[in-house]
Amino acid sequence: MKNNETYKIRGVIFGSLYPNKIHIHVGYNIGMMDGGGLLMVDTNQVPIDCRMPNTLVWITSNEVGYENITIKKMTDPEAVENKIEY
Questions:
Q1: Which of 11, 1, 8 is nearest to 55 (CA)?
Q2: Do β-strands 21-26 and 7-15 pair in parallel, antiparallel, or remain unpaired?
Q3: What is the CATH number of domain 7-81?
Q4: Under 8 Å between Cβ of 10 and 17
Q5: Which of 60, 61, 68, 64 has its CA nearest to residue 1?
Q6: φ, ψ at 45 (rounded to 5°)
Q7: In this predicted structure, what is the pLDDT of residue 30?
Q8: 36 near 25, Cβ under 8 Å?
Q9: Per-residue pLDDT tens for 8-48?
Q10: Cα 71 to chain center, whole Å?
Q11: Under a CB-based contact definition with an 8 Å cutoff, are residues 15 and 53 in contact?
Q12: What is the dihedral sign for C-alpha 33, 71, 17, 80?
């Protein structure tokens, strides 16, 4: 990527049965990705306060794809605005 554009997408911590891994439900309720998808990341990439299932998070990256990502917990107003609708 030549420009310094930042990509930000919402996600929900799903959990995992794999050792040292966490699944994150990424891209729920977004256009053609209505159902989203699961992203498996190393546990050490997820902040401690975000590791509980159903925690709403932001996933940001300076690249297309999920190679170098940052995970941050949504604030309460952001969580209300980006709630999960089943």
A1: 11
A2: antiparallel
A3: 2.40.50
A4: no
A5: 64
A6: -80, -15
A7: 72
A8: yes
A9: 888 999 988 899 999 998 877 776 556 678 889 999 999 99
A10: 6
A11: yes
A12: negative
pTM of the model: 0.81
Distances (CA, A) of 82 to 1, 9, 28, 32, 33: 28, 11, 9, 17, 15
Complete edge-to-edge strand list for the sheet that includes strand 37-42: 37-42, 21-26, 7-15, 56-61, 69-73
19: nearest Cα among 44, 39, 36, 56? 44
Query: Residues, the chain, total?
Result: 86
Q: Look up residue 74 and give its two tokens.
A: 């949504």
- Domain range list for the chain: 7-81
